[in-house]
Amino acid sequence: MTKNAFMKYLLICFIVFLSSCKKQNFNLANLTFPISKDSLPNNIKFKEDTFFNGYILYESKDSEVMYFDGLSLSGTINNNKKSFFMTNYVSFCENIETKKIDKYEIKIRTKQQTLKFENLLIKKFGKADFHYKNEKFSYQIWEKDGAAYFFETNHTGKYNNVPFVSSNLYVVNIKNEKLYQYRIAGGFQYYGDYLFAKNKEENKDKPFSYKDFVNQDKKEKEDWGDTSYYAKDYVE
Fold first, then answer.
1. Which pLDDT score is estimated for 7?
2. How far apart, in whole angstroms, are the C-alpha atoms of residue 191 and residue 68?
3. What is each CA distance from 97 to 46, 70, 84, 89, 194, in whole angstroms?
4. Which residues contact 125 (CB under 8 A, 6 or more apart)?
5. Backbone dihedral angles phi then psi of residue 209, each to the nearest 5 degrees
6. Hey, what's the torsion of the CAs at 85, 31, 92, 156, to 10 degrees?
7. How much is the pLDDT for 14?
């Protein structure tokens, strides 16, 4: 290899290294609510979509905005690289009036990233107090530093007759009641019952976890010779 060729090789390696470092500068895990759109990478072109009345979504599958605590969540199972369909992407939800983002959501359609992401969240936040799991679905909730993290995994997906595992992470500012309550549905609906019980006078001024809620309901049902539906598929 000639000297000039070697210098060109070193220059290419340096550029690749800088590009790699640049892509990891943005970390979804470091965002704190409310988020300003100005804090998102300004070199990314976001696709705009509608949500609730008064809210707008900014969506991107660009690898630069797909890092969470150093883990790349970028990926797809769709051969069409330009499409969002069956592709991992993130969406940020902005209030049109206040210009503040109080919710973002990461949608993952690749098994490898789903499994790695679940392990990362457990390592980062610890065991979820709200956790339901069966052979098809899993639902976990963590509340940390004013944000609620709703994580759902789905083992029933099929694309072109090939099974796949997908997941969604919905992260919301707890102070935004509208966006917070919106996610307490489907596999997370029991959490709404827990919050109602937690705000009762007898539970207000004492620690009352979701596990306490389940144990309380189990005892009440057992006293009547019945079983608690909150305990089914609950992971203690």
1. 56
2. 25
3. 19, 33, 27, 25, 32
4. 142, 144, 149
5. -80, 170
6. 40
7. 47
Please give the Cα distance from 117 to 154 (Å, whole number). Answer: 13
Q: What are phi and psi of 169, to 5 degrees?
A: -115, 120
| Amino acid 15: pLDDT | 45
Q: How far is CA 232 from the centre of its chain?
A: 24
Q: How far apart are CA 125 and CA 147, in angstroms?
A: 12
Tokens of 138: 């899993």
DSSP string for residues in the chain: --HHHHHHHHHHHHHHHHHHHHHTS--GGG--SSEEGGGS-TT--PEEEE-STTEEEEEE--GGG-EETTEE---BS-S-TT--TTB-EEEEEEETTT-EEEEEEEEE--HHHHHHHHHHHHHHH-S-SEEEE-SSEEEEEEEETTEEEEEEEEEEEEETTEEEEEEEEEEEETT-HHHHHHHSSGGGHHHHHHHHHHTSTTTTTS---HHHHHHHHHHHHHHTT---TTSTTB--
Q: What is the largest CA-CA distance in the chain?
A: 86
CA distance 10 to 154: 45
pLDDT in tens, 24-59: 689 999 999 999 999 999 999 999 998 888 999 999
pLDDT digits (tens, 9 = 90+) for 5-24: 555 555 554 444 444 444 46
